[in-house]
Amino acid sequence: MSRHPRPDVEIFQAASSDYTELMSISEGIYRGVDPLPFKYHEWLADPQRKMFLAKFEEQVVGFMSFLLVDNGTTAVAEGLRVAPWIRGCGIAKALQKFCLDNLRSYHPKTTRIRFTGSNETPPTIRRCQQVHSKSVISVQIPYDQMEEKIKLLEQRLESVGERRPVVALGPSEVLHLFKEPSLPTEGLLPNGLLIQSWVPLSTHRSNLELLLRRGVAWFYSQPLDSRSECAIQFSTSDSLYTHQEPSEPYPVPLLHSSSLPSPSTLSCGFLSLGTPPFPVPLGDGIHRFDIDLFGTDPISAQTHVLHQLIEMQRVLPSGANVVCYLFAEKILSPELTQFFQGLEPFYEVTEQQVFEREV
């Protein structure tokens, strides 16, 4: 427990028994696609995560957590929220100060904290700097229109020129992709950040293993010129996902990594991550699905989106509607917005911002 400049607010470590009360102050957050209701108990069980509640007059009025990443040298803040009736009273600042104090006292190895915001939610942590930003596009896809919308996207890709083959990466291949410490990643990962959903990570092995445990789907494309120095050699042959054959062929064959050519840097190509769909409070049977794109080639971006949607459809519970969030470099926004014409837009957040500050 800790006290802050506001003397009637106290901060406690979150517990399983706090779930219902915390959810009562979270209604409507992120337009009903808040991940916390689904992830709360999973987060509690994670030894690398700390979760804190702010209480006023014995009522929960705020929440914040941080996750230790980069082998413990960085914390990522997540889930900040304040009860609607007490916003503007310093609760968020108290939680942020408490988390920073906790890091300094109990995690001296941690030297910086990262967090994300949007064009709607400017940062509230002081002395931070923006290190990257991406465009956000979100659409709704009803279950009974899923096949129709995927076929629409397939047809749009039929008219484009040569496309890079797409490969689904297994765990060993993911680790191999970022194996060399000196590997130049700027072409794919500006500032070296692998942003999965709203979580900014480095390519440290511990972070890759974290994403693998979460069941993230990894797709990669080599450069069109397989002899280019931008291609990657894969030395393993395991594949994370076994794809069922669709009723019609994929617009681009989904290859196994063993069929790819073999030079060795990561300054080109295209990478995408698909977060397993999860239920959200928006309504019964509604799931959220996030696609993170890394690279700047518009044709590859559209191809990866299509493959990620096909993979998502394969694992989606029967009858589930989907809200899909797409995160991409800003240069891709016009082409991807046009690619999604005919799908219903969901949410007006258009920019993902990543911030960082020293602890």
From TrEMBL:
Domain (N-acetyltransferase) spans 9-184
InterPro entries per the record?
A: Acyl_CoA_acyltransferase (IPR016181), GNAT_dom (IPR000182), Hisat_C (IPR056483)
Q: Which Gene3D superfamilies does UniProt cross-reference here?
A: 3.40.630.30
Q: Which GO terms describe its molecular function?
A: acyltransferase activity, transferring groups other than amino-acyl groups
Query: What Pfam families is this protein classified in?
Result: Acetyltransf_1, Hisat_C
Q: Which PANTHER family match?
A: LOC100145250 PROTEIN (PTHR47403), N-ACETYLTRANSFERASE 16-RELATED (PTHR47403:SF7)
Q: What is this protein called?
A: N-acetyltransferase domain-containing protein
Q: Give the organism, scientific name.
A: Xenopus laevis
